[in-house]
Amino acid sequence: MSSESAAPARPVADGLVGRQHVLALTAILLSVAMATLDTAIANTALPTISESLHVSAAQVIWVVNAYQLATIAAALPFAASGEILGHGRVFAAGTLVFTFASLVCGLADSLTTLVAARILQGVSGAAIMSINIALIRFVFPARQLGRGVGMNALVVALAFTVGPTVASAVLSVASWHWLFLINVPVGVVAVLFAWKALPHTERQSHGFDPFAAVLCAGLLGIGLLAFESLAHGGDWAPVAMEALVAAICGVLLLRRQAGHPAPMLAVDLFKARSFKLSALTSICSFSTQGLGFVALPFLLQSTLGYSAVTTGLLMTPWPAVVAVMALIAGRMADRYPPGLLGGVGLVALGIGMASLALLAPHAAAWDICWRTALCGAGFGFFQAPNLKALMSSVPPRRSGGASGVVAVSRLLGQATGAGLVALCFHLSGQMHAPRAALWLGCAFALAGSVASVLRLAPGAREAAPMPSRL
Length: 470
Known about the structure:
By secondary structure, this protein is mainly α. The protein is built from 18 helices and no strands.
């Protein structure tokens, strides 16, 4: 990068106003909705894709796994590149590539092509999901940051809620290819709005380290692969090898970026106690959500005898209530301490998980719905305030690093929850595993609540110290 291109740009003002605010926010939320929907709809379409492409269930699962692994591997490198090149540029480029990858997915006629396109979707999706919260910080004034992250949480929750319904509706009238092709016009609009209205954020003078990006991808991607292999009862030898490679990548990454003004693995930000506790709270809460979303279908279908369609309806109150609570909690986060709001929300989530674990063998539909709704209310009450706490505890110039931690915390939490459900099945068997997983989710939620409340202690709200070189 030339010295001219590396020169810091003039910092953006405290939020956008008028038409630019509307266009920028629309671009962010449309892109986030696409990336989130593609996670939800792909799961629903796996049986149809398997039959259409004449591949086994074990093979077609890579349509999901490839996307997830690529996203978590690329999240922190893209967050770092946003600080160097400008968050708006990286976000717009990510949306453009995601739209192109969706077109390739929609035109795919083999599993190999589809998985390759899903990897490209995952990489570009990382550019979207690792930077969106950083951009929200510059689109909204500081006093309304809670409202901004609440709107982002609302869109994510709505996408998860309507994802299976959208997938079912599309599959009822068209082939699975259209699940991806519908992204193309939405993506084009999002790209146009992004190039036109996203704010020009301050750009840092240090260069991008490609080798550090490879090490970071190895640490997170291979580490997650090792955990999933272990959770599914894989052979010890390959699991140990994957874990060793991930650990080596981590050690080399820390050594390579020791003393760096803005390390890709944002260890500098974890010097702030508030940031550290907020990240821990996020991982605990998303682990609870992962445990719940994976364990509940087994409990409702295998143990309680509900059909797959009914199970989907019984679980809908969870993300639906998250969407409602996201806006409410987001506005409250601008007035009340996030540590308190997050603590209360995660206690409610823990109670909801415990109540689901205690479901009677012949529980009625309404009895299940109020419990899943309680889980959604607790999670929704936590999410937006916690996002605000994470972003507010770091200086604006490190918003990209903080936003990357937000994305990785979510992905690691969800993957941890799903992997622990598989481990419960491996250790406890079909009958007891779902309830054991729900109790484990309750424990994660209560642990997250304790971490959240600790943010109220004196000295927990300091911002992360920044090196003098910045």
